């Protein structure tokens, strides 16, 4: 069927409109309740892992540096999909069963932690030594200087790459469908299985992803502007 004949077929066009209307809310619900929730939870847990890993790399303590390097290497050297399969389908074979949503959050958190640790480490290293020395001259301890002086400035430096990581994470949550999480892409697969209209439904899902990421990019710009006072 050609494109022109498709639009000249009112029955097919009306069917697409009906499917789009009926599937929009389930897809949006999957995006807001699961995709975004998992992404936010995984990002904040991953950010904590990233800071701890970066501080371990900068600590000068060899065992901590070795553990941090191994963690980053194993996560960066294996596909995220494989990590999710190991957590959800592999661990039950040794008696450790984890529900779909926690499995997805664990998998995504480990991934965010490993990749973002390099961003955080680079941001901390970008702060001039004079900032540390100024903090010490005011009587601050290492942790006070880190929390009050260095991390706020490092946060500004790391916001653009971390924001991009979060936006990528939102899109990566579609992988959670393989561990049975009812997020937006899995909802789309269910609608396609019932309607046999993959082009329409997957295009609708792509549109929702795009709108969410567009809104997130606006939020990113505002956060960057707010943190400019630390530069």
From TrEMBL:
The keyword Hydrolase does not apply. Pfam families: BPD_transp_1 (PF00528). GO terms for cellular component: ATP-binding cassette (ABC) transporter complex. This is Amino acid ABC transporter permease. It comes from Brevibacillus antibioticus. It is found in: Cell membrane. One of its GO terms (molecular function) is L-cystine transmembrane transporter activity. Belongs to the binding-protein-dependent transport system permease family. It comes from the Bacteria. InterPro entries: AA_ABC_transptr_permease_3TM, ArtM/GltK/GlnP/TcyL/YhdX-like, MetI-like, MetI-like_sf. It is a multi-pass membrane protein.
């Amino acid at each position: 069927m050609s494109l022109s004949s498709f639009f000249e077929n009112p029955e097919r066009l009306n069917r697409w409109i009906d499917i789009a209307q009926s599937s929009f809310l389930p897809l949006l619900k999957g995006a807001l309740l699961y995709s975004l929730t998992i992404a936010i939870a995984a990002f904040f847990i991953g950010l904590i892992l990233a800071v701890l890993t970066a501080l371990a790399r900068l600590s000068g303590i060899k065992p901590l540096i070795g553990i941090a390097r191994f963690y980053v290497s194993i996560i960066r050297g294996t596909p995220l999909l494989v990590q999710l399969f190991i957590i959800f389908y592999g661990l039950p074979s040794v008696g450790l069963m984890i529900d779909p949503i926690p499995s997805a959050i664990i998998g995504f958190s480990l991934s965010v932690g490993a990749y973002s640790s390099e961003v955080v480490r680079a941001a901390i290293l970008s702060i001039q030594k004079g900032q540390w020395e100024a903090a010490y001259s005011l009587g601050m301890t290492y942790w006070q200087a880190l929390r009050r002086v260095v991390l706020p400035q490092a946060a500004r430096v790391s916001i653009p790459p971390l924001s991009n990581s979060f936006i990528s994470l939102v899109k990566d949550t579609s992988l959670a469908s393989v561990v049975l999480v009812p997020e937006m892409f899995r909802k789309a697969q269910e609608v396609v299985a019932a309607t046999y209209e993959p082009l329409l439904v997957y295009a609708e899902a792509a549109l929702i992803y795009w709108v969410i990421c567009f809104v997130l990019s606006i939020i990113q710009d505002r956060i960057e502007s707010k943190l400019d006072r630390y530069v």
